[in-house]
Amino acid sequence: MQEIFDLINEMSPFLLLGFLLAGLMHAFIPNRLYTHYMAGNTLKSVVYAALFGVPLPLCSCGVIPTAMSMRKEGASKGATVSFLIATPQTGVDSIFATYSLLGLPFAIIRPIVAFCTAIIGGHAVNLFNKEAATAVEHTTQRDYSEKHHTFLERLIEALRYGFIEMMGDIGKWLVIGLIIAGLITTFVPQSFFSVFAGNSIMSILLVLCISIPMYVCATGSIPIAVALMMKGLTPGAALVLLMAGPAANAASILVINKVLGRKTLLVYLIAIALGAIGFGLGIDYLLPAEWFIPTLAKAAECCDNHVEWFNIGCTILLALLLLYALIDHLRGHKHCHCHEEEGTCEAHADYIRRFTIKGMNCSHCAKNAEKAIRKVEGIENVTVDLSSETATITGTASDEDIISAVEAIGFSAIPL
After folding, report:
1. In whole angstroms, what is the distance from residue 175 CA to residue 223 CA?
2. Please, which residues have CB within 8 angstroms of residue 8's CB and are 6 or more apart in sequence?
3. Is the distance from CB of 63 to CB of 94 less than 8 angstroms?
4. Three-class SS of residue 416?
5. Smallest Cα–Cα separation from 84: which of 42, 103, 56?
6. Can you tell me the distance from the alpha carbon of 248 to that of 212, in angstroms, rounded to the nearest whole number?
7. Looking at the domain that runs over 342-415, which CATH code has it been given?
8. How many CB atoms lie within 10 A of CB 349?
9. What confidence score (pLDDT) does residue 254 get?
10. Who's near 157: CB < 8 A, 6+ residues apart?
11. Where are the domains of the chain?
12. How many other CB atoms sit within 10 Å of the CB of residue 70?
């Protein structure tokens, strides 16, 4: 428990700042900007996708339906893969958290590596998967219509998104990452990784094999990387965990194979693996080792028993927000979205259908499923509830069209 507390106490101020910036990005940057620049089978679309993806605060599961939605709206395969590689590896929240535990060099190198790997992977997909460029519509489509909000309304939305919605999305994975890091620090003997001492390539390959199938978000991977480094693994191996862990997991592999094809999946995995190995070896052999001493190790050397009351206050606030997110998730958001009285909803029962949506893990997943269904011809209204994995739909659209729309972004729909 002491190890876990030390980790979260070091991270909490930066996590709170990261969540705030994530909320501000969500509230003040229009979604249509992201899809506008990703159409076309060009290197420029791949670069734009990487640029948008690096700071975007999406968790490893939320990026999948978001990317599939972008693909449906006209993004090229290369741009979609570039976005899928760059986005889960980093984000404004994880950049600040990386700085808090791993120091400034890691915080700078991590987004650079994500950006470069995304461009390499996306451009390779465009080279091997030739397709006609598709235009993105920006006329009067319902998807791009945005309400005008006052500055205060946008600020409230930023706080709600950053500290409630996003906290609920990655809070569980952050806690799991902290617990794993605490267990590694406490129970793994110092000599466990001694066989890899001085052998950077073996350390990197070991971590790569563990990272690719596992599910861990960009922020949750940080304490695990710190724990492994403090047990003797190289900074390059830690970078591999920070890259491959969030970017590749069983869920993303299945969806990419289904929606984008086996060839695209192969290029995607090769780009992540080669990028992780190449940049990991570069850190170990080309950069000074003293740049990559975890912040906790430095603090232990010079500041024993030094209590940072500001950090403790931030930790308490973070714990309260995580608790609220858990309660909010358990309580669910089950309510009727018809604009009439409940009795009127009953009167239109013939038009109301419910589907089980499988594959959703966060609020981004639910929003993308709702957005995909809303585009189907004949849909009047739709509500997707994450906690019950249920979509409540009003309209005359066929079940087949609804199921196809949901499957196009990587989920499955089953009529109830």
Report:
1. 10
2. 178, 315, 318
3. no
4. coil
5. 56
6. 5
7. 3.30.70.100
8. 9
9. 77
10. 23, 26, 27, 149
11. 2-319, 342-415
12. 25
Burial of 357 (0-12, 13-18, 19+ CB in 10 A): buried
Using an 8 Å Cβ cutoff, are 280 and 228 in contact? Answer: no
Q: For residue 31, which amino acid is it?
A: N
What is the edge-to-edge ordering of all strands in the sheet holding 352-358? 379-385, 390-395, 352-358, 412-415
* Three-state SS at 155: helix
User: What pLDDT score was predicted for residue 301?
Assistant: 47
Residue 44 CB burial class (10 angstroms; 0-12, 13-18, ≥19): exposed
* AA identity, residue 200: S
Q: Which amino acid is at 366?
A: A
- 10 Å CB burial of residue 329 (0-12, 13-18, 19+) is middle
Identify the segments of the chain with pLDDT beneath 70. 3, 7, 31-35, 60-61, 130-148, 173, 181, 185, 188-198, 295-307, 329-350
The one-letter amino acid code at 299 reads: A
Tally the residues of the chain: 416
pTM for the structure as a whole? 0.70
> Quick check: 318 and 16 in contact, CB under 8 A?
yes
What are 353's strand-pairing partners?
393
Closest to 222 (Cα-Cα) out of 21, 17, 12: 12
Q: Mark out the alpha helices in 248-308 (DSSP H runs).
A: 250-259, 262-286, 295-302
**Alpha-carbon span 129 to 125, nearest angstrom:** 6
SS3 content of the chain, % helix, strand, coil (to 5): 65, 5, 25
Q: Six-digit token pair at 212?
A: 């690719």
Write the DSSP symbol of residue 136.
P
Amino acid in the structure at residue 79: A
Indicate the Cα dihedral angle 245, 246, 248, 250, nearest 10°.
90
Cβ–Cβ under 8 Å, residues 47 and 83:
no
Give CA–CA dist 117/131, Å, rounded: 22
CA quadruple 153, 159, 165, 170: dihedral sign: positive
Beta bridge partners of 392: 354, 383
